[in-house]
Amino acid sequence: MFKEARIKLTVWYLAIIMAISLSFSGVIYFGINNELNRIENFQKVRIQGIVRGFPEPADISVSHSQDSDAINDARARILLTLGFINLSILILSGLGGYFLAGQTLDPIKEMMDKQKEFVSDASHELRTPLTSLKTEIEVALRDKKMSVNDFKKLLSSNLEDVDRMQKLSNYLLKLNRYERTDDIKFEKVDLKSVVQEAAGTLKFKSKFDLSLEKAFVYGNEDSLIDLAVILLDNAVKYGDGKKIEVVTKKEGTLEVKDNGVGISKEELPHIFDRFYRADASRNKEKIDGYGLGLSIAKSIVDLHDATIQVKSKSGKGTTFKVSFKLPLSFHK
Questions:
Q1: How confident is the model at residue 112 (pLDDT cuts 50, 70, 90)?
Q2: Distance (Å, rounded) from C-alpha 311 to C-alpha 318?
Q3: Which CATH number goes with the domain that contains 127?
Q4: pLDDT in the model for residue 43
Q5: Are residues 228 and 316 located together in one domain of the fold?
Q6: Which of 123, 144, 178 finishes a domain?
Q7: 292 and 202 co-located in one domain
Q8: Alpha carbon 24 to chain centroid, angstroms
Q9: Cα(49)–Cα(45) distance, integer angstroms
Q10: Alpha-carbon dihedral of residues 206, 286, 149, 126, nearest 10 degrees?
């Protein structure tokens, strides 16, 4: 599909460029041809002795023939030159147009590939709880000897699957929301208050070592709280039960450091990818998740035109640092 689109786009580039080139060539040739006609007419007048002050040549017919041949030869050379120029433009613009068409379509192709991958991964993640839910219900319907307690256990298990799907759908909605900026309002927000509120929503508040300065940034408070919750929750999950340092500074930075299992060099470049879970170093069997938390965090960071840096070593912990660009008025 994209190859065909690239060729069509190249053809449109060529059509526009050649239309402009041929138009300019026509104007140039028309102007030069008018000037040659004027010179030719002047020569005719001079040779026929109409213009006074010019001596007549000995052989008027030969002189007039030579002048006409020279002017016609000049017209032919001009046409040949313009034709060569347009042919060169056609070839160069064809190559350049094909390259530019590829550059234009690459971001679209990349976005569509990511969308397809996202839909595929989301479908896979939803299929697991749905399959489990369906299987348990089908087995229960076939078993005529199930007691009330058995039904309660079944419903409890089904509820867990429903919770998993609800959690995934909430993640997907958040991810979609933070990738669209048209309905998100920005204002002056204090990162210190954001971290305090985020820490208050988590169960393990005692694990946080907070060192918070007032740090005012321009952003959306709700999304920044989500960002802080994701980073703090991530640190709790992989912090190996040790203290977690959380720092905000007036320069507009938020830093979350754990001393847990860490991330390997091979996995570090992929941690913000959707549905990515660093299984080897992150003990997947002990930790439930979809691999969307850090993707949402990255979307929130991008939404605020901020940067996020990650430093980590396997077995020695991980540090996430978010840096915001402060408006000049915030420095006063």
A1: confident
A2: 6
A3: 1.10.287.130
A4: 67
A5: yes
A6: 178
A7: yes
A8: 38
A9: 6
A10: 110
Specify whether the CB–CB gap between 205 and 327 falls below 8 A.
no
Confidence of residue 286 (pLDDT cuts 50, 70, 90): very low
Whether residue 327 is found in the same domain as residue 192: yes
Q: What is the per-residue DSSP string for 236-278?
A: HHHSTT--EEEEEETTTEEEEEE-SS---TTTGGGTTSTT---
Tokens of 241: 């039960």
Query: Cα–Cα distance between 291 and 215 in angstroms, integer?
Result: 29
Q: Examine the fold and report which residue of 178, 195, 219 is the final residue of a domain before the chain moves on.
A: 178
**Residues 252 and 283 occupy one common structural domain:** yes
Read off the CATH number of the domain in which 205 is found.
3.30.565.10
Kindly give the residue spans of alpha helices, DSSP state H, lying in the chain. 2-47, 60-142, 148-178, 191-201, 221-238, 279-282, 293-303
Rounded average pLDDT over 253-278: 84
pTM, whole model, 2 decimals? 0.59
Question: What tokens appear for 104 in the block?
Answer: 């234009």
Instruction: Clarify whether residues 146 and 11 are in a common domain.
Output: no
Tokens of 300: 């929130």
- 253 with 195, same domain: the answer is yes
Q: What is the pLDDT of residues 19-40, one digit of tens each?
A: 988 898 888 888 888 887 877 7
Domain span holding position 71: 2-113
- Indicate whether 194 and 326 sit together in one domain: yes
Q: 174-206: per-residue pLDDT in tens?
A: 777 776 666 678 889 999 999 999 888 877 666
Residue 10 backbone dihedrals phi, psi, to 5 degrees: -65, -40
Q: What's the domain count of the chain?
A: 3
- What does the alpha-carbon distance between residue 332 and residue 318 come to, in Å, rounded to a whole number? 33
Same domain? 206 vs 325? yes
Distances (CA, A) of 117 to 102, 120, 123, 276, 304: 21, 5, 10, 12, 25
Q: How far is CA 48 from CA 39, 54, 71, 88, 122, in A?
A: 14, 10, 18, 43, 91
**Measured distance CA(331)–CA(313) in Å, rounded:** 35
